[in-house]
Design goal:
By secondary structure, the protein is α+β, with helices and mostly antiparallel strands. The protein is built from 5 helices and 5 strands. The protein has a 5-stranded mixed β-sheet with strand order 1-2-3-5-4. Helix 4 runs antiparallel to helix 5. The longest helix has 77 residues.
């Protein structure tokens, strides 16, 4: 009888120890989940604050830029075509247009109209963006390959915003790619989410840059032009997180980078 009691007590102690260890593991897992959610929330808030700041700056610049543009249109007409400095007029005209385009894009992309949430067709948006950038990619010797699943549901992000996000990501991928390589694009259902991925064979993004690539004005590109503002990823994240989605990247096996966007699928009532 005593041996049975000791064995039973030991068994009970073992079970309690295992239960305690299991609870500790569960607590550690939940703590990590909370930390991740807090980190994501802080990043989303930073991106939203940066978006508001950029929109305010764009609006502040817009009015004086419109005045400069109108005044220069008159000045340009007064410059004789054969004047030795006449070529500078055309150059100034182009630069004013470039600034106007940058400001307009910032206003369009970052000041999202309040209103009921609209939905977008992820597979169609991906195909459309690939079509828009196919010629530019071909000129760089880069092929775009789209492979979306047949049953990709719609998502809870309006079509225009979705296209802007995908355009920025694909443009970055094309510019990062080496000639003779392929950029792979895809859309697939992942449970309650839709995952859109854009994978290039570029030089890759170093792991230490993981957080700062989503900061405004970060760029790996040597010269800043209207297409290369370094604003893209910051505002892509602001748009994607605004509808409960997430955006991230990872090194690609064999070299390059894969960016992906995960956005909740729309229900039949949403559409």
């Amino acid at each position: 009888g005593m041996t049975e009691d000791v064995t039973e007590r030991r068994g009970r102690e073992e079970r309690e120890k295992e239960r305690g260890a299991e609870l500790e593991r569960e607590l550690a897992r939940r703590t990590e989940e909370i930390r991740t959610l807090e980190r994501q929330r802080a990043e989303a808030e930073r991106a939203a604050a940066a978006a508001r700041m950029a929109a305010r700056i764009a609006h502040e610049i817009n009015n004086p830029l419109a005045s400069v543009r109108s005044a220069f249109a008159l000045v340009k007409q007064a410059v004789p075509k054969d004047h030795p400095h006449a070529p500078f007029a055309a150059r100034m005209d182009r630069e004013i247009e470039r600034m106007t385009t940058i400001v307009r894009r910032m206003c369009e992309l970052y000041v999202r109209e309040p209103g009921p949430p609209a939905c977008g067709d992820a597979a169609r948006a991906l195909a459309e963006v690939a079509r828009q950038l196919r010629d530019e990619a071909a000129a760089r010797g880069v092929e775009l390959r789209v492979a979306s699943e047949d049953d990709v549901p719609w998502i809870v992000l309006d079509h225009r915003s979705l296209e802007q996000v995908l355009y920025a990501l694909l443009r970055n991928a094309v510019e990062a790619s080496r000639s003779g390589t392929v950029v792979d694009l895809g859309a697939e259902r992942r449970g309650a989410l839709v995952r859109i991925s854009i994978a290039d064979r570029g030089a890759g993004i170093p792991e230490e840059a993981r957080q700062i690539v989503f900061e405004p004005f970060y760029t790996t590109k040597p010269e800043l032009s209207s297409a290369r503002l370094g604003l893209g990823l910051s505002f892509c994240r602001a748009i994607v997180t605004s509808c409960g989605g997430a955006i991230d990247f990872a090194p690609r096996e064999g070299g390059g980078t894969v960016f992906w966007v995960e956005i909740p699928a729309a229900s039949a009532e949403d559409r």
